[in-house]
Amino acid sequence: MDKQDIFQQVLTRLQDQCSTMLQAAQSSHDAATGSESKSEGKYDTRGLEASYLASAQAEQYENLKQAIHNLNGFIVSNGDEISHVQPGNIVEVESGGYIQHYFLLPSGGGVSLDYEGQDIVTVTPDTPVYQAILGCDKGDLVEEQDLLILDIL
Fold first, then answer.
1. Distance between CA atoms of 146 and 153, rounded to whole angstroms?
2. Is residue 121 one of the residues assigned to a domain?
């Protein structure tokens, strides 16, 4: 697996999500401030609901923008000698008979990619699986997550 290529795909996916979220936030803001949102009675909450949506989408946009900024400064190595799980690794695990690949990154969690027929999911330090496998070695059993570390890339 080429980690640099996978990393670039993650960045591209996040940039696409960020662009989509910006458009959605702008559209929601326009809807919240437009004449159609003007209250027509004391129980008409369209404008308020639209403003909540616009606010949440703007916050999500900022979170994505920050994740991209953090990843732009992150260096992913393709080194062969990996003794234990560390940030930037792709970790192949087995759980319940299924093989899964986790890409440990400082931000941008939850991105799922299909790379050469392998499902790869990004995980970040605030996730239980990241915390559980960080520092593990190949062959370790992580009991609290029911994971067997098969390989570290």
1. 20
2. yes
* 79 burial via Cβ count (<10 Å: 0-12, 13-18, 19+): exposed
Cα gap 109→107, rounded to integer Å: 6
Q: Are residues 67 and 94 in the same domain?
A: no
Domain stops at, among 16, 42, 72: 72
Whole-angstrom CA distances from 147 to 40, 94, 101, 140 are 56, 6, 11, 8
CA dist., res. 47 & res. 15, Å (int): 29
- Given a cut of 80, whether residue 76 has pLDDT beyond it is yes
The pTM assigned to this predicted structure is: 0.86
Q: What's the total number of domains in the chain?
A: 2
Question: Which amino acid is present at 69?
Answer: H
β partners of residue 149? 93
Confidence band for 37, pLDDT divided at 50, 70 and 90: low
Say whether pLDDT at 98 is over 90: yes
- Domain span holding position 125: 90-152
Q: In angstroms, rounded to a whole number, what is the distance separating the alpha carbons of residues 5 and 86? A: 19
Question: Three-state DSSP class for 149?
Answer: strand
